[in-house]
Design brief:
- This protein is of the alpha+beta class and about 140 residues long.
- The protein is about 40% helix and about 30% strand.
- It has three helices and six strands.
- A four-stranded antiparallel β-sheet has the order 2-1-6-3. It has a two-stranded antiparallel sheet with strand order 4-5.
């Protein structure tokens, strides 16, 4: 899984030479816990906007949807603030024929999560100011 986040002038996939700025990337191994911590909030965001931030899909936020994305990021910040300096997040399950289902967990660092949220908040503010889009591109 890799989920890239861009600030871009137009809603489609940026063409070579188009104006866009890479905000951050949720890397497969390193950032998976961070994505799964945000996942329930992304589900709520989908109910409001019809856009789902998915590891393998595309979600593009512009106009009024930026307000919904900003509210989601604010809620994520509040949740993060209520956590200890590091905590574990379930990122999947291991199953086998001879053993019970076992949770796969990864640590999430509070300072790192807040840094990711700061980058997203900054991108949303720029997108609002310039009438741009914040795009999540999964692979």
């Amino acid at each position: 899984m890799a989920l890239d986040v861009f600030l871009q002038e137009k809603p489609g996939r940026p063409a070579h030479g188009a104006e866009y700025e890479e905000i951050l990337c949720f890397e497969e191994e390193e950032e998976e816990g961070y994505y799964w911590f945000l996942y329930p909030l992304f589900q709520q965001l989908q109910k409001r906007t019809g856009q789902f931030v998915d590891q393998y899909g595309v979600a593009i936020f512009g106009g009024d949807n930026l307000d919904s994305l900003a509210n989601t990021i604010a809620a994520a910040r509040q949740l993060t603030e209520n956590h200890p300096e590091e905590w574990d997040v379930v990122v999947g399950f291991e199953v086998g024929p001879a053993r019970p289902r076992r949770e796969i967990r990864q640590p999430v660092n509070k300072a790192r999560m807040l840094s990711l949220l700061d980058k997203l908040q900054t991108a949303i503010a720029k997108a609002t100011e310039k009438n741009y889009y914040v795009a999540f591109w999964g692979d």
